[in-house]
Amino acid sequence: MGPPGAGKGVRGRIIGKMFDIPVITAGDMLRDATSKGTEDGLIAEGYMNRGDLVPDSIVIAIVEERLSKPDVEKGFVLDGFPRSMNQALALERILKKLNAKLDCVLTVVARPETIVARLSLRRICSKCGAIYHLKDIVPKVKGICDECGGSLIQREDDNEEIIRRRFEVYKKQTFPIIERYSTAGNLKEISGELEIDEIPSILEKLLSPRG
Ligand code: AMP
After folding, report:
1. Fewer CB within 10 Å, N side or C side of the chain?
2. Distance from the CA of 210 to the center of ligand 1, in angstroms?
3. Residue 153: which H helix or E strand, with range?
4. By alpha-carbon position, which residue is closest to atom 19 of ligand 1?
5. Tens digits of per-residue pLDDT, 160-201?
Protein backbone atom coordinates (compact mmCIF):
# COMPACT_ATOMS: atom_id res chain seq x y z
CA MET A 1 0.00 0.00 0.00
CA GLY A 2 1.09 3.59 -0.45
CA PRO A 3 0.49 6.69 -2.55
CA PRO A 4 1.35 6.78 -6.26
CA GLY A 5 5.09 6.94 -6.82
CA ALA A 6 6.02 5.94 -3.27
CA GLY A 7 7.86 2.88 -4.59
CA LYS A 8 5.31 0.05 -4.26
CA GLY A 9 6.14 -1.41 -7.66
CA VAL A 10 9.91 -1.51 -7.13
CA ARG A 11 9.53 -3.08 -3.68
CA GLY A 12 6.88 -5.54 -4.89
CA ARG A 13 9.16 -6.80 -7.65
CA ILE A 14 12.06 -7.23 -5.22
CA ILE A 15 9.85 -9.25 -2.85
CA GLY A 16 8.65 -11.39 -5.76
CA LYS A 17 12.26 -12.25 -6.72
CA MET A 18 13.26 -12.79 -3.09
CA PHE A 19 10.59 -15.45 -2.51
CA ASP A 20 10.26 -16.56 -6.14
CA ILE A 21 6.54 -15.82 -6.19
CA PRO A 22 4.39 -13.95 -8.72
CA VAL A 23 3.80 -10.22 -8.35
CA ILE A 24 0.25 -9.33 -9.22
CA THR A 25 0.09 -5.67 -10.14
CA ALA A 26 -3.40 -4.26 -10.61
CA GLY A 27 -2.19 -1.27 -12.65
CA ASP A 28 -0.16 -3.50 -15.03
CA MET A 29 -3.12 -5.83 -15.59
CA LEU A 30 -5.38 -2.86 -16.29
CA ARG A 31 -2.82 -1.32 -18.69
CA ASP A 32 -2.60 -4.70 -20.41
CA ALA A 33 -6.41 -4.88 -20.79
CA THR A 34 -6.41 -1.32 -22.13
CA SER A 35 -3.73 -1.96 -24.72
CA LYS A 36 -5.47 -5.17 -25.84
CA GLY A 37 -8.69 -3.16 -26.22
CA THR A 38 -10.85 -5.59 -24.22
CA GLU A 39 -14.29 -4.36 -23.14
CA ASP A 40 -13.12 -3.85 -19.54
CA GLY A 41 -9.88 -2.29 -20.77
CA LEU A 42 -11.75 0.32 -22.78
CA ILE A 43 -13.92 1.23 -19.78
CA ALA A 44 -10.86 1.32 -17.49
CA GLU A 45 -8.90 3.63 -19.81
CA GLY A 46 -11.04 6.71 -19.15
CA TYR A 47 -10.76 6.35 -15.38
CA MET A 48 -7.00 5.75 -15.56
CA ASN A 49 -6.37 8.75 -17.79
CA ARG A 50 -8.20 10.96 -15.29
CA GLY A 51 -6.35 9.45 -12.31
CA ASP A 52 -9.55 7.97 -10.83
CA LEU A 53 -10.02 4.45 -9.55
CA VAL A 54 -11.38 1.99 -12.09
CA PRO A 55 -14.77 0.59 -10.91
CA ASP A 56 -14.41 -2.10 -8.23
CA SER A 57 -16.34 -4.70 -10.24
CA ILE A 58 -13.77 -4.60 -13.07
CA VAL A 59 -10.66 -4.64 -10.87
CA ILE A 60 -11.97 -7.31 -8.51
CA ALA A 61 -12.88 -9.58 -11.44
CA ILE A 62 -9.40 -9.19 -12.99
CA VAL A 63 -7.58 -9.85 -9.69
CA GLU A 64 -9.85 -12.78 -8.80
CA GLU A 65 -9.26 -14.37 -12.17
CA ARG A 66 -5.47 -13.97 -11.76
CA LEU A 67 -5.61 -15.48 -8.27
CA SER A 68 -7.32 -18.58 -9.66
CA LYS A 69 -4.10 -19.54 -11.53
CA PRO A 70 -2.02 -22.36 -10.00
CA ASP A 71 1.21 -20.32 -9.73
CA VAL A 72 -0.16 -18.42 -6.70
CA GLU A 73 -0.22 -21.52 -4.54
CA LYS A 74 3.25 -20.86 -3.11
CA GLY A 75 2.31 -17.29 -2.29
CA PHE A 76 2.04 -13.98 -4.14
CA VAL A 77 2.55 -10.25 -3.83
CA LEU A 78 -0.35 -7.93 -4.52
CA ASP A 79 0.71 -4.50 -5.73
CA GLY A 80 -1.89 -1.74 -6.01
CA PHE A 81 -4.77 -3.87 -4.72
CA PRO A 82 -6.90 -3.38 -2.65
CA ARG A 83 -7.42 0.34 -3.13
CA SER A 84 -10.96 0.75 -1.76
CA MET A 85 -12.97 -0.71 1.10
CA ASN A 86 -15.01 -2.85 -1.34
CA GLN A 87 -11.80 -4.28 -2.76
CA ALA A 88 -10.47 -5.00 0.75
CA LEU A 89 -13.66 -6.92 1.54
CA ALA A 90 -13.49 -8.76 -1.79
CA LEU A 91 -9.89 -9.74 -1.03
CA GLU A 92 -10.95 -11.21 2.30
CA ARG A 93 -13.58 -13.28 0.48
CA ILE A 94 -11.11 -14.44 -2.21
CA LEU A 95 -8.44 -15.36 0.36
CA LYS A 96 -10.96 -17.39 2.33
CA LYS A 97 -11.86 -19.29 -0.83
CA LEU A 98 -8.17 -19.95 -1.51
CA ASN A 99 -7.60 -20.91 2.10
CA ALA A 100 -4.82 -18.33 2.20
CA LYS A 101 -4.03 -15.55 4.63
CA LEU A 102 -2.37 -12.15 4.40
CA ASP A 103 1.06 -12.57 5.97
CA CYS A 104 1.88 -8.91 5.79
CA VAL A 105 0.50 -5.60 4.58
CA LEU A 106 3.38 -3.33 3.70
CA THR A 107 2.90 0.43 3.49
CA VAL A 108 5.43 2.54 1.64
CA VAL A 109 5.86 6.01 3.06
CA ALA A 110 7.31 8.94 1.11
CA ARG A 111 7.10 12.73 1.14
CA PRO A 112 4.97 14.39 -1.57
CA GLU A 113 8.04 16.31 -2.91
CA THR A 114 9.88 13.01 -3.45
CA ILE A 115 6.89 11.55 -5.25
CA VAL A 116 6.34 14.35 -7.76
CA ALA A 117 10.06 14.55 -8.56
CA ARG A 118 10.22 10.77 -8.95
CA LEU A 119 7.17 10.30 -11.14
CA SER A 120 8.25 12.87 -13.71
CA LEU A 121 11.47 10.86 -14.25
CA ARG A 122 9.84 7.42 -14.09
CA ARG A 123 9.86 5.21 -17.16
CA ILE A 124 8.29 1.76 -17.44
CA CYS A 125 8.84 -1.13 -19.80
CA SER A 126 6.01 -1.27 -22.33
CA LYS A 127 6.32 -5.08 -22.40
CA CYS A 128 6.92 -6.37 -18.83
CA GLY A 129 6.13 -3.31 -16.68
CA ALA A 130 9.61 -3.15 -15.08
CA ILE A 131 10.24 0.23 -13.47
CA TYR A 132 13.11 2.62 -14.23
CA HIS A 133 14.06 6.15 -13.27
CA LEU A 134 16.15 8.46 -15.43
CA LYS A 135 18.49 9.20 -12.50
CA ASP A 136 18.15 6.46 -9.87
CA ILE A 137 17.29 3.26 -11.75
CA VAL A 138 19.01 3.66 -15.09
CA PRO A 139 18.78 0.85 -17.69
CA LYS A 140 22.03 -0.59 -19.08
CA VAL A 141 21.03 0.50 -22.61
CA LYS A 142 19.18 3.80 -22.88
CA GLY A 143 15.46 3.33 -23.53
CA ILE A 144 15.63 -0.49 -23.36
CA CYS A 145 14.44 -2.77 -20.53
CA ASP A 146 17.26 -4.78 -18.89
CA GLU A 147 14.87 -7.64 -18.13
CA CYS A 148 13.09 -8.26 -21.43
CA GLY A 149 14.49 -5.89 -24.08
CA GLY A 150 11.14 -4.04 -24.36
CA SER A 151 11.12 -0.29 -25.01
CA LEU A 152 10.76 2.12 -22.09
CA ILE A 153 7.92 4.62 -22.11
CA GLN A 154 6.56 7.36 -19.88
CA ARG A 155 3.10 6.59 -18.47
CA GLU A 156 0.40 8.98 -19.64
CA ASP A 157 -0.85 9.46 -16.08
CA ASP A 158 2.63 10.47 -14.84
CA ASN A 159 1.97 14.15 -15.47
CA GLU A 160 1.60 16.74 -12.75
CA GLU A 161 -2.16 17.33 -12.96
CA ILE A 162 -3.05 13.63 -12.99
CA ILE A 163 -0.51 12.86 -10.25
CA ARG A 164 -2.29 15.42 -8.04
CA ARG A 165 -5.63 13.74 -8.75
CA ARG A 166 -4.19 10.26 -8.00
CA PHE A 167 -2.90 11.59 -4.70
CA GLU A 168 -6.33 12.93 -3.73
CA VAL A 169 -7.95 9.62 -4.66
CA TYR A 170 -5.37 7.79 -2.53
CA LYS A 171 -6.08 9.98 0.50
CA LYS A 172 -9.86 9.64 0.19
CA GLN A 173 -10.38 6.07 -0.96
CA THR A 174 -7.27 4.03 -0.18
CA PHE A 175 -5.73 5.50 2.97
CA PRO A 176 -8.78 4.63 5.15
CA ILE A 177 -8.33 0.91 4.51
CA ILE A 178 -4.80 1.01 5.99
CA GLU A 179 -6.50 1.57 9.33
CA ARG A 180 -8.30 -1.73 8.89
CA TYR A 181 -4.98 -3.56 8.49
CA SER A 182 -3.32 -1.73 11.36
CA THR A 183 -5.97 -2.98 13.75
CA ALA A 184 -5.61 -6.51 12.33
CA GLY A 185 -1.95 -6.33 13.42
CA ASN A 186 -0.23 -7.34 10.20
CA LEU A 187 0.80 -3.89 8.99
CA LYS A 188 4.47 -3.00 8.47
CA GLU A 189 6.04 0.16 7.14
CA ILE A 190 8.98 0.75 4.79
CA SER A 191 10.45 4.02 3.63
CA GLY A 192 9.88 5.03 0.02
CA GLU A 193 13.05 7.11 0.06
CA LEU A 194 15.73 4.41 0.27
CA GLU A 195 18.54 3.99 -2.24
CA ILE A 196 17.70 1.11 -4.58
CA ASP A 197 20.62 -1.03 -3.23
CA GLU A 198 19.43 -0.67 0.37
CA ILE A 199 15.95 -2.03 -0.29
CA PRO A 200 16.56 -5.85 -0.43
CA SER A 201 18.27 -6.16 2.97
CA ILE A 202 15.70 -3.93 4.67
CA LEU A 203 12.88 -5.97 3.15
CA GLU A 204 14.53 -9.19 4.22
CA LYS A 205 14.67 -8.03 7.84
CA LEU A 206 11.15 -6.63 7.74
CA LEU A 207 9.61 -9.76 6.23
CA SER A 208 11.47 -12.29 8.38
CA PRO A 209 9.24 -13.86 11.05
CA ARG A 210 10.87 -11.67 13.70
CA GLY A 211 10.90 -8.50 11.52
P1 AMP B 1 -0.75 2.19 -10.68
O2 AMP B 1 -0.03 1.54 -11.82
O3 AMP B 1 -0.83 1.33 -9.48
O4 AMP B 1 -0.22 3.57 -10.38
O5 AMP B 1 -2.26 2.40 -11.19
C6 AMP B 1 -2.54 3.20 -12.30
C7 AMP B 1 -4.02 3.46 -12.40
O8 AMP B 1 -4.72 2.22 -12.61
C9 AMP B 1 -4.66 4.09 -11.19
O10 AMP B 1 -4.54 5.50 -11.16
C11 AMP B 1 -6.12 3.64 -11.35
O12 AMP B 1 -6.76 4.40 -12.36
C13 AMP B 1 -5.94 2.22 -11.91
N14 AMP B 1 -5.87 1.23 -10.83
C15 AMP B 1 -4.78 0.49 -10.44
N16 AMP B 1 -5.08 -0.32 -9.43
C17 AMP B 1 -6.39 -0.11 -9.14
C18 AMP B 1 -7.29 -0.63 -8.19
N19 AMP B 1 -6.92 -1.55 -7.28
N20 AMP B 1 -8.56 -0.17 -8.20
C21 AMP B 1 -8.98 0.74 -9.08
N22 AMP B 1 -8.17 1.30 -10.01
C23 AMP B 1 -6.89 0.88 -10.05
Report:
1. C
2. 32
3. strand 152-153
4. 81
5. 899 999 999 999 999 999 988 988 778 999 999 999 999 999
